[in-house]
Amino acid sequence: MITFNHKARILIIYTGGTIGMIEDPDTGTLKPFDFDHLIDNVPKIKKLRFEIDHIQFTPPIDSSDMNPRLWDQIAKSIADNYDGYDGFVVLHGTDTMAYTASALSFMLENLNKPVIITGSQLPIGEVRTDGEENLITALQIAAATTDEKRPRPMIQEVAILFENYLWRGNRSTKMSADNFNAFKSNNYPKLAQIGLGIHFNEEALWRLPFTRPLNVRYGMDTNVAIIDIFPGLTEAALRHQLSMPGVKGVVLRTYGAGNAPTAAWFTDAITEATERGIVMLNVTQCPNGGVHDRRYYSGNRLAIAGVISGHDITTEAAITKMMFLFGQGLSQSEVKRELITSLCGEMTV
Ligand code: ASP
């Protein structure tokens, strides 16, 4: 069961998303609105008796407009307030939530406080909204502590809370545009199950074996790309994508256990790209399972061509990890070395 710090100080960072949207009377479409509107719709928050402050993006955004500059902004808000708060709740649109969660997990080095990201499928002002419950549960999780003499935060990582589950942020994927349970970690257990109570799966939680000051690593390098293969992909299309000016890294989304066409034109194009110095990471298109690139002849050809196995990493974590590593100024071989290492629980190696 859950133990709370009843005097918890929590900072809400409101970036936008459906949770705070209202309908535009002229167009009938949903548009982000300000924090006061959002909070006015959750009077129950006062019952929590936590000390809650907020920061809001101006203007709040639909998360399809999220970008690495804004990730820096979120990370900076956390860093600037790190010592003054017990936990952080980031309100965010669902569309790019898994990318933001992954990016923050890499950027917030030595994190040992909760960063809980949530949002909703229905705006907070709607009668059947899921936003109210998600916000309240996220705040409770941010205030949850271990049941020890000297309690520590229960969650010490970036996590996504949605409806009935808490997931590791860099393992999560948006699975549904309709269901209230919109997120899932297809390759990692849930961190908590939310029902009548909040039940943490303590064995699955990320805990650093040391305490060091938070160190934010800013600056993503966006010279990266995702290439999806499909039956019918042409040599011209593949070569065009691999020769984009400035591209340093590519997440290659392959079939099943990491397989791709065995035709010479395909392997040649990939080999030429890796020989030109492009770092390529093999990630499966399957929502569940990972790359086993020595299992089939076709996957093995990719490994021989110099493509690194991404094991069971999500596409969201793979692309943000690449942006992060190149953004730290690492060389090609250093990036490759880090890609086969789990930095903060983003893959099983
Ligand atoms: N388009 C919205 C966003 O990502 C969807 C949502 O919040 O659920 O901001």
The mean pLDDT is 95
Major beta sheet summary: 8 strands, mixed
Rg from alpha-carbon coordinates: 21 Å
Helix content: 25-40%
In the sheet with the most strands, the strands line up as 5-2-6-8-10-11-14-15
Poorly predicted runs are: none
The 3D shape can be described as globular
Distance between the termini: 31 Å
How much strand content do the residues show? 15-25%
Number of helices: 9
- Strands, count: 20
Ligands, deduplicated = aspartic acid
H/E element order: EEEEHEHEHEEHEEEEEEEEEHEHEHEHH
Structural class: alpha/beta
Description of the structure:
The protein has 349 residues and is α/β, with parallel strands linked by helices. Helices cover 26% and strands 23% of the residues. The strands form six sheets. It has an eight-stranded mixed beta sheet with strand order 5-2-6-8-10-11-14-15, with helices on both faces. Helix 6 links the parallel strand 18 and strand 19. The longest helix has 13 residues. The radius of gyration is 21 Å and the shape is globular. The chain binds aspartic acid. The site of aspartic acid has 11 residues, from loops. Aspartic acid (ASP) binds next to loops.
Give the topology.
Elements: E1 3-4, E2 9-16, E3 21-23, E4 30-32, H1 35-40, E5 51-61, H2 68-80, E6 87-91, H3 97-107, E7 108-109, E8 115-118, H4 131-143, E9 144-145, E10 158-162, E11 165-168, E12 172-174, E13 183-185, E14 192-194, E15 198-200, E16 215-216, E17 224-228, H5 235-242, E18 249-254, H6 264-275, E19 279-284, H7 297-304, E20 308-309, H8 315-327, H9 332-339
Parallel strand pairs: 2-5, 2-6, 6-8, 8-10, 17-18, 18-19, 19-20
Antiparallel strand pairs: 1-9, 3-4, 7-16, 10-11, 11-14, 12-13, 14-15
